[in-house]
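Worked Example 4.2. Read the sequence first, then its structure tokens.
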Amino acid sequence: MSHIFTGRYTAQTDKPFVLFLIGMRINKLWQFNKWWSVAKEMPPMLRTLAEHPEKGMLGGYNSLNWPTIVQVQYWRSFEDLEHFARNPDDPHAAAWQRFYKQVGKDDAVGIWHETYTINPGQYECIYANMPQFGLGSVFEHRPVAGRMATARQRKESSRTDAKETVGIGR
């Protein structure tokens, strides 16, 4: 079991980062061959990213909201994410081509993604009695105290601390 950090914590970074949400939706459960061909593409991509942190993915986690499977990813930059997606030497480009060949416009399975670039001062987070999770697993994990007690203070602190803090993040 993961170590639980008792009390309230937040995460901070002095750099912009990218929140990338990617997922698939199983529209026709009985068409296993269609959606399984999509689902099996993600593990090789994640393995490549785990083995090569220089590619820019900082971390992430999976979530299931049946019939949708979501992966939340944190990236160092949009440029890193785009390079991974388009680089023919990485597994995404070939997976994308296979999707269009095997699934195309067949509505048995859907795929989607959303990309957000977030600057210091444009986010806040709180974790109470949790293991390191979300942003707290990829950036500096700090106890909440004093001037970071409220959501507004944490948001403002992420902007002002960015000027004072060095070396946060991976």
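Now turn to a second chain, presented in exactly the same format:
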Amino acid sequence: MINSQSCVINRCCESHKDLIAAYRLMRNDSWCADDVVRAMSQACASNVSGLSHILLIGDTSELSFDNMSGRLSKDDPDFGPGTESSMEFSQFVHPTLAVDAESYPPLGFAHVDIWSRKRDRADIPDRHVRPLEQKESFKWASGPEAADLTLPRSVRKTYVYDREGDIYEVISRIKKSGSDLVVRSRVNRHTEDGLLWDSVRACDPACTYELVVRRKGEPTRTALMELRWLKTTIKSPVRKGGRESIEVTCVYTREVPGTTPDGVEPVEWKLLTTHDVGNVKEAMMIITWYKLRWLIEELFSVIKSRGMDVGEAQLESGKAMKKLIALSLYAALATMVAKMALDASNEKMGANVIFSEEQIVTLHVMMRHLHKESPKAKGGRNPYEKESIPWAAWIIARMGGWSGYEKAQGRPGYKTLSKGLDVFHTWHLARTYCDPPQKDVYKD
């Protein structure tokens, strides 16, 4: 999938024999999506080992397969209704993406939930009387619980959620576990001094700053923002007994009134955090961490519409589709990491995060070819540390048609990297087929 940049099995296989083998593999009941998730979690634990602080970004995406409705069965328990009444064959995926809190590269998946909804919901009790474990919203707590079991305890963890994750019981569980949270406030909660939003809005602005706003359907613009924060204690909902309270800080930022263009909704974020916020720098850090949610949105975009095409996968079994979704997450993240590392020139991350030892040897072979073709030109000289992620991504991009001249062409995008990975795959197959493993022969 990484090499072909697609979840569609027909596009991933080079021969009919490989195609048949791939479909048999996906239908094999001796493994399941949880096995893939477990392997990804273990790899993530290895990648975060030694770090002091990581962000764990969670979000949910719906995948609809109604385009294949004529080939799917409503009796399949691994397909279910979607968020819209017309959707009959949907699945949901909720990954918890680990990110370095200092340099921001993605490090893997601490956990992934993949599920489908029951068609017959008549026997399901009212959500107000069900425990959290029996609700779909448990996904916001299951990620932290799994991460606590898998990731090193020495690493500080901060969970970053959008408004859907603003659930009192989830906030309470994460705080009690010793981890931290940044969540966009959805509910104007009761505090010791009144309603939360009213209290923080009454504070004087600490500063103003500029924020680049990119919204779908709107031109990119720069907004003038004002910043406030307030440390307070939110009360437990009445239905929970109203006894427990949680100390949080609300970081509040909004566009300065009167500066928003006509007809445009002003930006306004109310962020709850368990981190201590005592100055502008610390408040801006909370905002920066929340902005990193775009990483998981980018991940969903790559899976769906920017190359992987998971919605076009031709699998008739819901159980097999869940396996494919888990695999596609890994493939999409590998591509994202390569592009981001190249864009940021992050040479601290080794290529072994994505590529095996034998594949790195192939990258050395490709680099020698590029250098031989133009030894004095910029396109034949890789400017990055050998065997780092940007070093590998630079080679892949060059093989995908990028000239190496950023001023002329800019940074390579996903399509260029996709083409380069196709070429890399061909080279790697040819080299490993013709040569025995020789890890140091081709290295400079």
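Notes for the reader: The CA atoms of residues 57 and 293 lie 6 Å apart. The first helix runs from residue 9 to 12.
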